[in-house]
Amino acid sequence: MSAPAELVAALPQYDIGESIGEGGMGVVFAGVHRTLGRSVAIKQLPWDVLNHAASSELFDREARVLASLDHPHIVPVYDYVRTGREHLLVMERLDGGTVHSRFHGGGVSGEQACAIGLAMLAGLHAAHRAGVLHLDVKPRNLLFSTQGVVKVADFGIARVISEGATLVTHGGEILGTPAYIAPEQAMGNALSPAADVYAAGTVLYELLSGRLPFDNTRGAISMMRQHMFTDPQPIAGVPSPIAAVVMRSLARELDARYREAESFAADLAAAATVAYGPGWLERSGVPVLHLTPRVIAGLNSATAPAHPAEARTRPVSRPGATLVGAPAEVGEPGWPGADAPGAGRPGGAGSGAGVAGGEWPGGAGSGAGVAGGEWPGGAGSGAGVAGGEWPGGAGSGAGVAGAGPGGSGRAGADAGAGWSGGATGSAPDESASQAAVVWLRLAAAAAAVVLVVLALLNPARLPHQVSTVTLGGDSAAAPVEVDLSKPVVLTGPGQPGRVALALSAAGIPLGSASAEAKPEGNGFSAELTLPGVARWIVGGAVTAEVRTDSATQTFTLLTSQHPLASAMGAGSLILALFALAYLESGLRTIRNGHRWRGAAVGGPVLGLLFGAAVWLCVSVLRVHEPSPGFGAGCAVAGAVAAGLVVAAARRRASTVVSRPSGR
């Protein structure tokens, strides 16, 4: 595919060649700077998406940030040109292929996979510090230079294109590739660097194990649903220290996942050193540049990270509870304290907020971190994971107790229960909370049943005195059907005078009309024309009131149009769906570990609206005259049900502790 004339005209300083790539993020053309002779890649962004002023301005700002990124593991942006509808990024051209092509062509070793992971995370960390998210990390966006340096491409483009809708389609692709997309991105929630961490973890999982963490045989939608609602399959055939780090990066809950790329990289470096031995990075043959001091410390570490797969499932303490042995401030799990010499080495002992004990025989220590180790004789105490994965591991503290044969843990002030396979601590608070959640849900279900029953029990007709008037020749002594799109002819006994007709539902006025009556036989006759909007408001059965100079009568009036062709019918249905959707959105926020501000009030209010809407919709569809008493009952039942559901979700979110993958 040759470059279009508009692109050639926009970049006269470049010789532009054929297309070398195409996808949801645009088309890439090869180019050479006429004066410098520098090979470049020119990305023509999708103009039909960036054609909107808001998206275009956003990408203008994003491009300036992208151009300022200067890191050896990020594809540099040399220029950004915007002319008319064209948005063009001029970048370094990398001819070493992609991680995807190398992985599928000849494969990569474990050392090489970890080195690629460190390079990828280094680039992500640098971009995140500049405020740029990637949101489409995948092997095809990891490019090799001719010197073998891995560089991350397409920073920030996905965020702009998908602004306002996390999942949008363009050019036949879904932005945020389904195989690598983070749960919160698939759900449309607020995004942070943790979304890129998840995608990077998925890439690393694939490079190490040769497969994706989820079944990819059932299509994109199934894949995204698995990311949202299913835990990944435990990674197989990978050294346990590295497996633990990778699985933590894939935690669905944000609080259990690495929050930023540097923490992930530091733990990965330490785990790879334990698994492959010192010097593994040099042996991999993959250059990794500009490592932060924290990652370098991981490379030089003699111990694996602090059981990140277990740290991700640490118990959630109650407000005000104090973790036994925990200092006032605890650093990122997996890092020895500043004054923890010898932690984790044979015979070593140390204290501080970090790794207590270690992975070698005789390791011992204390502090707020992992207590005990992965080898016989490991021991320690602290507020963290207690016990180890091998016989004899022991420890005390507030955390997960006993992870393997012979592992044990003593409960602290807010102790969690041990997983199967070892001795366990006690968790009465967790059990009580789980029971409370069950009871709250049962009570919410009972309130919902009451709502439905009340809606169905709403009487067909409200009590009225026998009416003596007729409408269109039909006696109002029984429910009378009227076409509100036409004038209503009302007749009755008595003297002519002013006659008024008013319609209402549960006491709420819906429309009225009045006219001077004319003598007719022994009574009167009046032609009343209701406002034109009344025919679109009134649906089903309503209460009609006729007022004359001498008397007032009420009766049941039925409309001739379909109930759903009215605001009462369609409007109540839409209101019910809106309230339910908004309530579910709030509950999803709570389930994802975030705070739903105003949940204590917003939940019941939405439930009240839902209950009232269900009552009205059912009444209209069944052509029953709405009763205010039953409506109030349904609204209260809905408010109670929603309030209980919110309380259950909040209680569960504050107490649930997920089990580690593979246990």
Question: What does this 3D model show about the protein?
Answer:
The chain has 663 residues and is of the alpha+beta class. The protein folds into 5 domains: 5-92, Phosphorylase Kinase, domain 1 (2-Layer Sandwich); 99-299, Transferase(Phosphotransferase) domain 1 (Transferase(Phosphotransferase), domain 1, Orthogonal Bundle), CATH 1.10.510; 302-425, no CATH class; 435-457 and 565-655, no CATH class; 470-561, Sandwich (Immunoglobulin-like). Helices cover 37% and strands 18% of the residues. It has 19 helices and 24 strands. The protein has a 5-stranded antiparallel β-sheet. It has a 5-stranded parallel β-sheet with strand order 10-11-12-13-14, with no helix packed on it. The protein has a 5-stranded antiparallel β-sheet with strand order 16-15-18-22-21, with no helix packed on it. Mean pLDDT is 78; it is low at 160-174, 309-428 and 656-663.
Write the SSE topology.
Layout: H1 5-10, E1 14-23, E2 26-33, E3 39-44, H2 47-50, H3 53-68, E4 77-83, E5 86-92, H4 99-105, H5 110-129, E6 142-144, E7 150-152, H6 157-161, E8 169-170, E9 173-174, H7 183-187, H8 193-209, H9 220-229, H10 240-249, H11 261-276, H12 280-284, H13 293-299, H14 308-311, E10 349-351, E11 364-366, E12 379-381, E13 394-396, E14 408-410, H15 428-457, E15 470-471, E16 474-475, E17 480-482, E18 488-493, E19 498-505, E20 508-516, E21 518-520, E22 523-528, H16 534-537, E23 541-547, E24 552-559, H17 567-591, H18 599-621, H19 628-655
Parallel strand pairs: 10-11, 11-12, 12-13, 13-14, 17-24
Antiparallel strand pairs: 1-2, 2-3, 3-5, 4-5, 6-7, 8-9, 15-16, 15-18, 18-22, 19-20, 19-23, 21-22, 23-24
Helix pairs in contact: 5-8, 5-11, 8-10, 10-11, 11-13, 15-18, 15-19, 17-18, 17-19, 18-19
